[in-house]
Structures are given as C-alpha cells and as structure tokens.
What does this fold into?
Amino acid sequence: MDSNRAANVSSFDFVGGVQLLQGEDTRTAMPVLLIGICVSGAVGNLLVLLIFIRDFRTGRGSEVKALLASLASTDLLILLLCAPVRALTYYKQTWTLGSFVCSTTDWFQHSCVVAKTLILAVSTRAKHTLVPCAATGPPPGPTWIHGALACIWIVAMMLPIPQMLFASLQPYGSDTICVSETPACASDFMSLFYKMYPTATFLVPVIFTLAYYTKTLHAAVNHHAPSPQQQSKVTLVLLCLSGALGLMLLPEWGTFTWMRLGYNKPPVGLIIFAQVLLYACSSVSPVILMTMYDDVRQGLITIWFVATCRSSRNLPRINKCPKTEGNGAEVQGANAVANAVPGGEDKTFPDVEHFWTGRRNTHVEEAQDPVPWEREEKML
It folds into this structure.
C-alpha cells in the first residue's frame, strides 16, 4: 500500500477497494467471498420484495412494509452495483473501470448506506397496522412515506458529494489507480465535515432508532398495548434490523473517519474486514425478515407452494381413454359433438337433425310393414 503523497494533499485513500495489494490469496479469496455474499443477498432481497409486492396487491400492506420494501431495494443496489466493483478491484489490484466509475462508486455506496440508516430511523413513525383497502381499485398507499423517501434520498445523495469531488485517477507505473485526495487548502473545512458527517448520518440515527424500539418493546411487553403480541413482534424485528445495521456498519464508518481525518492509516486487514461487513449487512437483513417476521415467512411459504404447483403442472399427464359401449368410435364421435356445442343451448347440426327427425317421424303402414309379427306380439 505504498504511495507517494503530494505535498499539497492532506489525506489520501484508495477508492473502490484497496489496490496494490501483494499476495495471490487475497486476490482470489476476496472476489469469491464478495460474489457469494452478493448472490445470496440479492436472492434474499428479491424474495422479500416479491412478498411485500404481493401483500400490497392483496390489500395486506402497511407503512412498515413499505419502508422495509424500500430498505430491501437499497440493499439490492448495494449488492448489485457496489459489491461487484470491489470484487473486480481486488482481483485486478488496479483500476480498470474508467474515470466516471472512479468518481461515483464511493459516492453512490455512501448514498445507499446513509439512505438505509435514515429509512430505519423514519420507520419509528410508521404504523404496523394494515393500510385500509378502498372499495374499488388498488389500496391507497400512505402518501407521507413517498415524501419521506424522496427527502431521504435527496439528503443521502447530497451529503457524500465530497466523495465524488476528490476522487480521481492516478498513474502508477504502467497501471492506473483510483484514489481520493483532499487538497491542503480544504483540509480545515473537510476535517470538520468528516467529523460531523458520520455523526449526523450514522451515530445519531442509529442511537435514536435503537433507543426508540427498545422503549417501545418494553412498553408493549409490560403494558396493555393494542394487539401487544403482534406489535411486539414487529418492533422486535425492527430492533434487530437496527442493531445489525449499527454493529455491522460501525467498522466501515470507523475506518472511513480514521483515514479522512489524516491520522495514521488503519491496518489493511481492518479495512477489508469493514468492507466485507458492509456487504454482509445487506445480506443479513432478508435473513432477519424471513426468520422473525411472520408475514414474510408466510409469504415465503406461499411462494414456495405456488412454484411447486406450477412445476407439477408442467409434468406430462397420462391421457385416459374414454369408456366405450359397443362401437367406441360412435361414443367418441358423440363426445366430440357434445363438446363442440356450448352448454345450455339447444343446437343441433343439420345432418344430425335430419337423421333424428326421420327416425322420430317414421310411420310404416301396416300393409307395407316388413315384420308384421312384431306388431302382433306387441298387440297381444
């Protein structure tokens, strides 16, 4: 990790993953680990999204489910757009994705991480009850959530802008590396910013969310709250999500602040461990929802049954031959005629009508009867 820092640069850091690492073990193990986390987390978050979409279509949505669906979407963005960049960087050990990705990769990742933290903080205001369905049409969604999510993403995309401004490509021998360099002229302002930025976007929201859900869970268990069992279960799920997010993102924010404030560089192993925990956090969230949230667990079972039934329908079926009486061809022909005629309507084909009409209206004179003995037996 050796690099020559210019005299007019106050802080220096790699962007998009640690580069110029020595050793084949890290080059092989890190991409495999990140890809495994990315695939498993993406599948889990997609299932959670499908379950929430199904709940809203069937009129079983709620404000908490809307925010949790937004949280799962944010985790998908992190796993599908940010983790592969780090995996490729660890494999190549240099930067190969161009200047645009170099400038925006850390900014986009921080935007998603800040949005996750703020979404969980806003969930303290959301209701756990179902959204009432309208008599006709789709169920109305809570309008304040749309405004809250818009504000969250605007704030989350504006605060990490320095990550985009100070990122640039630098030549390193015959290769290129992506680094973030803070100019010395902006060191005082950026030093203050890097102290306030993690505090406002991570520490305060996480502490507030954990304190709120701990107090709410205590009140729901020890006092007579409306539907205490259901409310305490949902509160426990949100408390676990907030606790997992706080614990797993703490190393990332710690190393970020450590490097940006110009102190001695943290160990490379700690930086890599913090980045792995960041992506693992996005994979742990759907696991918590599937194991602890009753609605998600029931929706997962429903999706499994639907997929199983659809696969069983595609299996080849044995065609049973129709029962025949006497001549089988006549029975099959009669069935074909019956199926062709719509039920409840008295319709006959012209040829068939002529045939049966002739049979019904047949009147044979006694003098022309070819079998007169049959008539005599009937009269006796």
Summary: The CA atoms of residues 128 and 230 lie 9 Å apart. The beta strands are 9-14, 167-172, 175-183.
